[in-house]
Amino acid sequence: MFSLRFCASTTFIAAILPSACQSTGSGKSSIKDDVELSAPDCPAGTDYVPLSLAEPPDPNVEFTPKETIKDGTPHLWPTGYETALQLRVDACIDNNDNFKVLRIISRQYISGVGVSIYREYKADSGIKAEGIIEALNGDVSKLLIFVPKSEPGESSFKITGTVVGGDQLTYIFESSESDPEKAEGRIFTFGTLISANPWAGKGEGPCSGDKTLQQYRHLVKTSNGEIDFTVVGCEFYSYGTRRLEWRKAWLKDSGAPAGFANKVFTFSPDANSKESRFDYSFTHHNACEWHSFILPHASYGMTAAIRPGNIGGNSTECEQKKFAPRTKIEENKGFAFAYGGQPTFIKNVDIKIEKKALKAIP
Fold first, then answer.
1. What is the C-alpha separation between 199 and 107, in angstroms, rounded?
2. Whole-angstrom Cα distance, residue 114 to residue 282?
3. How far apart are CA 241 and CA 102, in angstroms?
4. How wide is the angle at C-alpha 134 spanned by C-alphas 128 and 136, nearest 5°?
5. pTM for this one?
6. Do the beta carbons of residue 238 and residue 227 sit within 8 Å?
7. For the stretch 335-359, what's the b/e string if a residue is b when 16 or more beta carbons lie within 10 angstroms of its beta carbon?
8. Residue 103 host element (H or E)
C-alpha cells in the first residue's frame, strides 16, 4: 500500500517525500469565476489525494519532450517560475493503490495585467491515469495522466515523465488532440511530481481561491436618524474590476415608521424573494455600482458613480437600477429611500463607508 501521511500545517493528504508539504508557487492573482478550488468529494472507500509539481532539481536543464511539435522548438518552463503553469490533479485512491483522476486545474499568471487565469479540465470519459504510484516513488517511466478535450475547440491536458541526467522529471502541456499518443505541444512546464495541494487553504471556508471575505458597512444620515446597511461577500479583482460575490446583507433604519425602527432585516442570495430582497450589481472597472433593498414596508437604494465614462460614450451619470437612483459623477454617491410614498434623496456628503476583512460570515 502506498504510504500516506498528513502534513501538520494543512488539511490535505501528502506523499512521503521531502517537499510534500511545500507550496509550489505563489503570486498576486484573481480567480476565474467558474473554477471552484475546493477539494471534490471522493467515492466511499477512497481518499482524496491532490497531485502537483514541485520545482525540478535543475531548473535550467534542457531536453526535448517526445511530444514536441514536428520541426518545432520546445519552450521549457520550470515550475516555480512566475509565469509557468501551475497545476493540481484532483484524484481519489483506494486501498489497492488504484487512482481515479477526477479533473485537472491549471493556473497561469499573466504578468502584463497582474492576474491569474484558472482553467479546469475534466471529461465524462476517457481520462487516463497510469504509473502515478511509481512516479511518486521515483520512477516516471510509466507515468501518464491525460484528460481529453470535452468538446470541439477545447484543449486536452497531458502529464507524463522523462529522465534527464538521472533526474526524474514530470512535464505537462496542453494539446488539441483527444488521443494521448497523438498529443503534441510547444510549451511545456516541468518539475517533480508530488502529492501536495499548491493552493492549500484556498477554496476552503466561505470564499474560494484568491477571494477574500470583506465587509462593507454604509452609514447614511437622514433627517429622522440613520440608515445602517452592511454587505458581506467574497471579493477579488479581475482585469481592473473589483468583484464582490455577496453572501449576506442586512439593514437597520432608526428613522423608519413605528414598528420598523431599529429592526434588523437580513438577506442572503438563497432567501431573496420578490417582496423582500437585496440586489447588488456593477459595471466594468466599477464605473457604476448599485445596491438596492426592497422590503414590504420600505425601499432603499444606493448608487456609486465612480467613473461613468468607462461604461461607454461620454456618460457622466449612472442610470437608475431597481430602487438605486440615477447619480451624476460629481455627486459620486447617491442614496434614496421611501416608506411607501415619494422617495427621499441624499447626496454623497451624508454617506460614510467602512470596510474590514473578515474570517467568517457574521
1. 10
2. 21
3. 32
4. 95
5. 0.51
6. no
7. bbbebeeeeeebeeeebeeeeeeee
8. strand 99-110
Q: Which residues make Cβ contacts (< 8 Å) with residue 328, sequence separation at least 6?
A: 305, 316, 317
Rounded Cα–Cα distance for residues 198 and 25 (Å): 7
CB 54 within 8 A of CB 78: no
Answer for the pair 290, 298: CB distance below 8 angstroms, yes or no: no
What is the CA 112 to chain-centroid distance, rounded? 19
Helix H or strand E encompassing 136: helix 132-136
Of the listed ranges 87-96, 153-162, 168-177, 340-349, the one predicted with least confidence: 340-349
pLDDT of residue 146: 95
Which of 88, 42, 37, 356 is CA-nearest to residue 207?
A: 37
Whole-number Å distance between alpha carbons of 294 and 308: 25
Cα separation, 37 vs 116, in Å, equals: 13
Give the number of other CB atoms < 10 A from CB of residue 246: 18
Q: Average of pLDDT values for 232-251?
A: 84
Q: Helix, strand or coil for residue 132?
A: helix
Cα three-residue angle 233-27-108, rounded to 5 degrees: 95
Q: How many CB atoms lie within 10 A of CB 215?
A: 17
N residues, the chain? 362
What ranges in the chain are assigned the alpha helix state H? 132-136
d(CA 28, CA 82): 10
Q: Grid coordinates representing 46?
A: 477512497
C-alpha cell at 221: 444620515
Most distant CA pair in the chain, distance: 81
Cα-based distances in Å from 262 to 217, 228, 253, 310, 343:
16, 9, 5, 38, 20
Work out whether the CA dihedral 146, 128, 191, 195 comes out positive or negative: positive
Give which of 132, 134, 117, 124 is closest to 103, Cα–Cα.
Answer: 124
Q: Which residues is 212 bridged to in the sheet?
A: 235
User: What percent of the chain shows pLDDT beyond 70?
Assistant: 83
